[in-house]
UniProtKB/TrEMBL annotation:
GO cellular component: plasma membrane
One function term, GO molecular function aspect: transmembrane transporter activity
Native species: Novosphingobium fuchskuhlense
Pfam families: AA_permease_2
Keywords: Cell membrane, Membrane, Transmembrane, Transmembrane helix
UniProt membrane topology term: Multi-pass membrane protein
Protein name: Amino acid permease
Compartments it resides in: Cell membrane
Gene3D superfamilies to which the protein is assigned, alphabetical: Amino acid/polyamine transporter I (1.20.1740.10)
Transmembrane segments: 27-47, 54-78, 90-111, 155-178, 190-209, 239-258, 278-297, 317-340, 347-367, 408-427, 448-468, 480-497, 522-542
Keyword ATP-binding: no
Amino acid sequence: MSGAAIADVTGVEENGELLRSLDWKGAFWASSGVPAGVLLTIGGIATMIGQPSWVIFIASIMMGFLQSFVYAEIAGLYPHKSGGASVYGAAAWLPYSKFVAPISVWCNWLAWSPVLTLGTSLAAGYIMASLFAPDSAINTWHITLLDLGFIRDKLTLRVNAVSIIGTAFLLLTFALQHGGAAKAANAQKILGIACLAPLILVGFVPLITGDLPAQNLFPILPLVRDAAGHAHFGTWDGYGLTLMAAAMFGAGWSTYGFETAVCYTREFKDPAKDTPRALIASGILCIVIFALVPLAFQASLGLEAMMDPRIGDGSGVALALATIVTKGLGVTAGGAVIVANLFIAMLILSLLLIVMTSMMGSSRTLYQAAVDGWLPKYLARVNSHGAPTAAMWTDLAFNLVLLLASDYFAVLMISNVCYMAFNFLNLQSGWIHRMDRAGWERPFRCPTWLLGLGALLGFVNMAFMGAGADVYGAGTLRNGLIGVLLILPVFAFRHYVQDKGVFPAALSEDFAESPAVKRAGVLPWLALVGAAVVVLGAHSLARLPVPVG
C-alpha cells in the first residue's frame, strides 16, 4: 500500500496496537539519550588508539549522518510499522530469502538491547567511584556465579555492588515505560534538557576558553605499546590501520544510534512528515555532541592521562569530563568539588536517558518483529497505554542477566558485530526497495547518489568489522557472528511451528495491493557474497594481535 493510503487506514487507534500519539519532536526527545552513548565508548576508544580518537568520532558521526538518509526513505514506505529501520530493511530482503530478512531485525535488537546493561552499570560505576576508594571492600566484593571463559577469557557471571545498583536503575527506567511512548517521551524531554547540558558544556567550554592544547591533539598518530606495555606513537602501518579500523568499528556503535528515531513511525501522528524530521533533527544533535565532546576530552587529558585504567574501563570518564568544565569555568577549591559532583550526577541522569531511549526502541523492534512473524507471538502484546509490555519484559530479563557479566565492554563489542550486520543489510535494502518498489509513494526520497553512497558505506563498515573486531579480544568477531545466526532457530520456531509456514496477515498485506517485483535479480545475493569476502579479506590483512596491552 502507498504511504498515504496506509496513513488513512491506520490513523484510527485500535485496541491491541501502538497508539498514534507522537510528533517528530516527541521522537526527537525520545531519541535524545543517544548522544550519551559517547560516555560508553569514548574512554575505551581513546585508550586504544590515542590521539586520533577525536578524528575517529567526527568521521564516524558523519558516516552515520549520511547513512541515515537511506533509513529515512525506507521508513516512509511503511508508515504503519513500528520497530525502526531494521523492520523496513527486512521487508526488502523477504522476497529473496525468508531467512535473511529476520537477521536485520534480530541484529538490531541484539545490538541495542545491551545498552540497558551498559548504561545502568556505568551509572552505577560513577556512583561507586564517587563514594568509595578504588581499593575499598565494597568495590572488590563479588560472588562468582558462572565461568564463561569458553566465550571470552576471564569472562564470568557475578554479583557485585555495580550489578545490584545497575539492577535498581534498570527497574526504575522499566517502570517509566509503561505509560506508552508519548508519556515516556515527555519524561525524556525533561531529562533531556537537563542531561544534555553537561555534554554541551564539555563540548563548548574549551572552545570558548581556547583551552585546546595542540600537543594533545597532534600528531594524529596511533598509539602502540611495546612488549613491556609502554605506550608511544606508532605509524600508519599495518598495526596502525588495524587500530583505526577497530576504532571506527567501536565508534559506529554509538554514533550511528540516532537511527532509533525511526522506531516510532507507527506511533507518529503524521508518519510521512514526522519520520524524516525526527531523524534529521536527532542527527544534527549527535553531530554536535560526537564532534565536540571527544575533541575536548582528548585535548584536555592528553596522551599520558589516557593511560589511566579508569579511562579505559569508563569509570573515570565522568570525573575527567567534570574537570574539563570546572577548569574552563575557573571554579576552584571547594566549589570545584561541588560542581564536579553535580556534573557527575547529571551525567548519571544522561546515562539513564540513553537507557530509556534503548528500552523504547528495542522493545518496539521486538514488538513489530512479532507482528510481522519473525519472532514469537507473545512479543506482540501491548498494555492499555499502547506500550509493548511483553517485549519490555523480555528486554528486562535479558539485561538482568547481562548485568551479571564481568566485562561489559566485551558484551558491547560482541553485540556491535550484530549491529554492523544490521547496518549492512539495511543500507543495501535502500537500493533493493528502490528497484523493486519503484512505484511506491516515498514521502522522503533520498538522492540517488546518496543512496548509492550508503550502500558503499555498508561495505566500508564490513571492512572495519573484519579488521577491527578482534582488537577488542580474541574471538569477538566469531562470537558476534554466532549471535547473528541465533535468529535462525528462533525464526524457524515462529514460522514453521507457530504459524505453520504462513506469514501473518500484517506482513502479507504489505505486498498484497502492490506486490514487489524482484527486479534486483541476483544483486542482493552478490552483495551478501561481497560482504563475506570483505570481512574475511579485512580479517586476514589485519595485524593481530595488536599490542594494546
